[in-house]
Amino acid sequence: MKNRIKKLKKINVKTIDKLKILVYMWGVKKQRGGRKMGSLLLKGKAGVGKTALAEYISKKFDFNFLYILCHEWVVAEDFFYSINIPTIAKKFAGVDGGDFYLKGILAEAIKLSKSQKVLILVDELDKASTRIDALLLDFLQNCRVRNPEGKLIYGDESNIVTFITSNEERELIDPLQRRLAKVELTHLPLQVEASLLSSPASDFYIDLQRQFIIDYILFSPVLYENFKLQNLIVKVADRMRQADLDISLYELKQFYLHIPIAKDIEKMVLLIKMWLCRNSEYEEFLHNQFKGLKNLAHAFIDLYKKGGEK
Fold first, then answer.
1. 3-state helix, strand, coil in the chain (%, to 5)
2. Which one of 33, 108, 186, 259 is most buried, by most CB atoms within 10 A?
3. How far is CA 135 from the centre of its chain?
4. How many CB atoms lie within 10 A of CB 72?
5. Residues 237, 285: Cα–Cα separation, whole Å
6. Same domain flag for 89 and 201
7. Which range marks the domain in which residue 44 is found?
């Protein structure tokens, strides 16, 4: 296993030189390295606490909480803009009734983000059609919506966190999954659940996984250079692509930029699952290639620490 990691570290990138990797993968240094919009997909069975975690974070860290529960009838207007029919009726009657359009959850988040922190919870997206998945793509990528006049309105991405939950009744479309950190939540240990039965309703148990989610969304990534680490990530991605497992540059970059908060093996494994494992097939491949995700995590941590040595 160690030999396999060493081979990956030693491989020279023949088709892409160092300059191209630094420019295309990690961004020109003049670009802002500040916090991008935190976007997470919380997966798991009903009752594991996906919605409760988002609500807890919004209260704990003073986010404005915007919520939508998805179903088969949810439409684009619920997310962007809809016609304010009472206002139009009043207008015809000669009465000033306010705005012609009502803001959907994403349009409202854009507005609030100019001055406040916002947490959006799109709950049970798997119950909506795949068309709704596609509607979220541009917002998650560019933190913008188009108003009824066709003008693009941008929000402050540093003030927005988006949680999407899924009970996995269907697979979300790949372009959406590429834009999201993915977390599989499970039920708490039995002894923890037993202790919580007699606890106040306000009590919320934070285990290592849930704490890492909190650390992740509060973290403000900055650009840094660690060519050996970058090279290893690229070679791991190349292995995945050779096995017909698609992995995007965006996913690789988000993984790389968040490595500073994954300073031990358990946290690094969580980060690997967030950005390099789109589903169980990806996880199984990496597990088989490196004799377990912990071995791969150790290699990433080792190179990150060495890159920080003077």
1. 50, 15, 35
2. 259
3. 16
4. 8
5. 11
6. yes
7. 38-218
Mean pLDDT for all residues in the chain: 88
What residue type is 303 in one-letter code?
Answer: L
Mean pLDDT, rounded, for 83-103: 70
**Rounded Cα distance, 112 and 117, in Å:** 7
Closest CA to 254 of 297, 216, 226: 216
Q: Is the pLDDT of residue 166 over 50?
A: yes
Do 89 and 190 lie in one domain? The reply is yes
Contact 121, 163 (CB under 8 A): yes
pLDDT value at residue 99: 73
Q: Rounded CA gap, 154 and 110, in Å?
A: 7
CATH number of the CATH domain containing 179: 3.40.50.300
Task: Give pTM, 2 decimals.
Answer: 0.87
* Interior/surface letters 33-57, b for 16+ CB within 10 angstroms, e for the rest: eebbbbbbbbbbeeebbbbebbbbb
